[in-house]
Design brief:
The protein is α/β, with parallel strands linked by helices. It is 34% helix and 20% strand. The protein has 9 helices and 11 strands. The strands form 3 sheets. The chain has a 4-stranded parallel sheet, with helices on one face. Strand 2 and strand 3 form a beta hairpin. The longest helix is centred in the middle third of the chain and has 16 residues. The radius of gyration is 21 Å and the shape is globular. 24% of the residues are buried.
């Protein structure tokens, strides 16, 4: 009862900063992005990245000064939150989400090229981190051997498993994630072709949007491998509980080693 919790987040959809208190938690929504139109910075003009997220860090730290927290938890090193947590100067914990340094290796675009340096600086300067796997723990330790790391495996909210779990008769695999090469969906489809040899009725449902040309290449790969009757691209869905409750296996990030006999 003596702990006061505030959640601070940026949004490009508000015209001014907002504060709401609900269920004992105070939510602070900080305006961010291009003024007037209330949208994020366009890909062709990423001023937020070019300025090192300076305006976002300033806005977030101004909000933190109104709260005066004893401890700050900055979620993610790929934008302003980790930087703001460090800039505020109080004891802080930084959680590792995506690792831009690793993303850059497979997708060396302009944004990742710059942001990876901000990320590495945060990891060097931070003292306390939460990581989800041995992979991100190793990433932090390699840059900052003195860091204290709490490895906490994230659980899926029970709301996604409402209702009774009724798996289908045929083996059913569900992939939930963006259609991006780094998510491993291409590797998953290749693996499915191997699985189909032993289990012809295996099904793969894919929930996720985006991809552009990459998404088109996935459809072509499915056709090439003769998996048209095994793979179903569902696009983006707000509610996943029905699919989750009918799946034998859920995958959100696919990394496999395939070895032909």
């Amino acid at each position: 009862p003596d702990v006061e919790l505030h959640l601070v987040t940026e949004s490009t959809y508000v015209a001014q900063n907002q504060t709401v208190r609900q269920d004992g938690i105070t939510f602070h929504v900080v305006r961010q992005g291009v003024p007037v139109i209330h949208r994020g910075f366009p890909v062709w003009c990423p001023l937020d990245v070019l300025t090192g997220f300076r305006s976002s860090v300033a806005a977030l730290t101004r909000t933190l000064r109104t709260i005066e927290p004893d401890i700050v938890h900055g979620h993610g090193t790929e934008a302003a939150y980790g930087k703001a947590a460090l800039a505020f100067g109080r004891p802080c914990l930084i959680s590792i989400q995506g690792i831009i340094t690793e993303y850059y290796k497979s997708n060396p675009d302009f944004r990742f090229r710059i942001v990876r340096h901000f990320e590495q600086d945060q990891v060097r300067r931070g003292k306390y981190f939460t990581c989800r796997t041995s992979f991100d723990t190793g990433f932090v330790s390699a840059i900052n051997p003195a860091a204290r790391i709490f490895q906490i495996h994230e659980a899926m909210n029970p709301v996604f498993f409402e209702g009774e779990w009724r798996v289908q008769d045929d083996p059913h695999v569900l992939f939930v994630g963006g259609l991006q090469e780094r998510k491993g969906i291409r590797t998953l489809i290749l693996a499915l072709a191997e699985v189909k040899r032993a289990i012809p009725a295996v099904k793969l449902s894919v929930i996720g949007g985006g991809g552009g040309e990459f998404a088109q290449s996935l459809h072509a790969l499915v056709a090439e491998l003769g998996l048209g009757g095994n793979v179903d691209f569902l696009g983006q869905k707000d509610r996943k509980s029905t699919r989750l409750n009918s799946s034998h296996l859920v995958i959100s990030y696919a990394v496999f080693c395939l070895k032909k006999k």
